[in-house]
Write a structure and sequence with these properties.
With 240 residues, the chain is α/β, with parallel strands linked by helices. It has eight helices and eight strands.
Length: 240
């Protein structure tokens, strides 16, 4: 098994799935989201290499912190770019009754290794960049076709999922787009939660360190009222 390229770990994660999580940030992403707060994870050629055994030993070292109520979360970057590795890793975790969560944009085609990952995934945190194809490309540099197909696959196989949606003023908050998103999600019976994530600038310094310009200079975080309006629209379509 080829080693995985990993950027870092978070041993006491509380926002990437239920309970306390051991969060693994896998290196590499083919999205180029304007609001990305992990700009340093894009490059697939860097990151520290871990064998399957070495990663399992990291999990074991922290198991006492999460085993009662949490589990492990694979995030990134885009973890499914290393789906062969994660498939075997999640299988081992489930064998030892460790809850597995996958934080993904679902942008990788559903090949056999991705299917194997999902067979050993207890929860998917699905990041939908935008429901509109053109706006998704403008925002993330990539089509949303694979993401929407991924959501349908999760529904068809009744794999629990949380929807994650970044509220970015002027980009993702148009009422007609939220209505469209709600209509897309309405048939799915496997949605356990919708997380609306207000845009913030906390990752801006990483762009500066990478020598990149930050396109969202001056964009403010949405107000609580703005986020509540979006939730009210989605609540018309999705009951969780």
């Amino acid at each position: 098994m080829k080693p995985a390229k990993i950027h870092s770990f978070e041993s006491l994660g509380t926002v990437d799935g239920p309970g306390i999580r051991f969060v693994i940030f896998f290196q590499g992403c083919h999205f180029k989201c304007k609001y990305c707060h992990n700009r340093d994870l894009w490059d697939c050629s860097i990151g520290k290499e871990y064998t399957l055994r070495e990663l399992c030993l990291e999990v074991i070292k922290h198991k006492d912190f999460f085993e009662d109520s949490g589990g492990i979360t694979a995030t990134g970057g885009e973890p499914l770019l290393q789906s062969d590795f994660i498939a075997d890793f999640f299988e081992i975790c489930q064998h030892f009754k460790i809850h597995t969560a996958l934080d993904t944009a679902g942008s990788v085609p559903i090949i056999d290794s991705v299917k194997k990952v999902l067979r050993h995934t207890d929860l998917v945190l699905l990041d939908i960049k935008h429901i509109d194809e053109k706006k998704a490309k403008e925002l993330s540099g990539s089509s949303n076709a694979n993401t929407l197909a991924f959501a349908k696959y999760l529904s068809e196989h009744n794999i629990p999922m949380w929807i994650r949606y970044v509220v970015l003023p002027g980009y993702t908050d148009a009422p007609e787009d939220i209505e469209k998103l709600g209509r897309f999600l309405q048939p799915f019976k496997n949605i356990e939660k919708i997380e609306l994530l207000p845009y913030h600038e906390m990752g801006k310094h990483k762009w500066e360190l990478m020598g990149d310009s930050y396109d969202l200079e001056g964009v403010k975080s949405p107000s609580k009222e703005d986020v509540d309006k979006i939730r009210a629209i989605l609540d018309k379509y999705v009951v969780v």
